[in-house]
């Protein structure tokens, strides 16, 4: 079954005139693995989030669509906290514990904070 993420990836490569092999080569994976990701049979590696944005120079709207497609497809998220400071680790854990209790207003506020941060990073 083609997922939202699969649709996004397929459209992205078709719009760029690429075949499955082209995108797979850029991502350093086999054609069969990329196909399985597009078809929802395999999870997209989290490293692809930034990699695809960079490889395909996605604009802010494309990045938002990509993030939305990932969110619609994923059931779980893994975070590597190996090099994170103690404060960042505490924040990640506190967020995970509170995740289901965050109301709509708080979600909107968090989105705004993250969007401002992303725009600030994109300008530098």
What are the salient characteristics of this protein?
124 residues, mainly alpha, 7 helices, globular
Give a verbal description of the structure.
- The chain has helices at residues 4-15, 20-27, 31-38, 48-55, 60-73, 86-98, 104-123.
- The mean pLDDT is 91.
- The protein is globular and about 40 Å long.
- Helix 2 (20-27) packs across helix 3 (31-38).
- By secondary structure, it is mainly α.
- The chain has 7 helices and no strands.
Give the SSE layout:
Layout: H1 4-15, H2 20-27, H3 31-38, H4 48-55, H5 60-73, H6 86-98, H7 104-123
Helix pairs in contact: 1-5, 2-3
What would the principal axes of the Cα set say about the shape?
A: globular
Query: What low-confidence regions span 5 or more consecutive residues with pLDDT below 50?
Result: none
Q: Helicity, in percent? A: 55-70%
Question: What is the tally of helical segments?
Answer: 7
Beta strand count: 0
- Averaging pLDDT over every residue, what do you get? 91
Radius of gyration: 16 Å
Helix/sheet category: mainly alpha
Order of helices and strands: HHHHHHH
Straight-line N-to-C gap: 39 Å
Largest sheet: none
Beta fraction of the residues? under 5%
């Amino acid at each position: 079954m083609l997922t939202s993420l699969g649709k996004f990836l397929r459209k992205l490569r078709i719009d760029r005139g690429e075949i499955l092999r082209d995108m797979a080569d850029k991502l350093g994976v086999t054609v069969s693995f990329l196909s399985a990701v597009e078809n929802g049979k395999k999870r997209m590696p989290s490293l692809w989030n930034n990699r695809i944005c960079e490889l395909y120079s996605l604009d802010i709207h494309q990045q938002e669509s990509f993030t939305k497609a990932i969110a619609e497809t994923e059931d779980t998220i893994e975070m590597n906290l190996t090099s994170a400071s103690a404060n960042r680790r505490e924040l990640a854990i506190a967020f995970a514990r509170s995740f289901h209790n965050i109301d709509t207003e708080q979600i909107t506020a968090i989105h705004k904070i993250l969007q401002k941060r992303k725009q600030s990073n994109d300008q530098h």
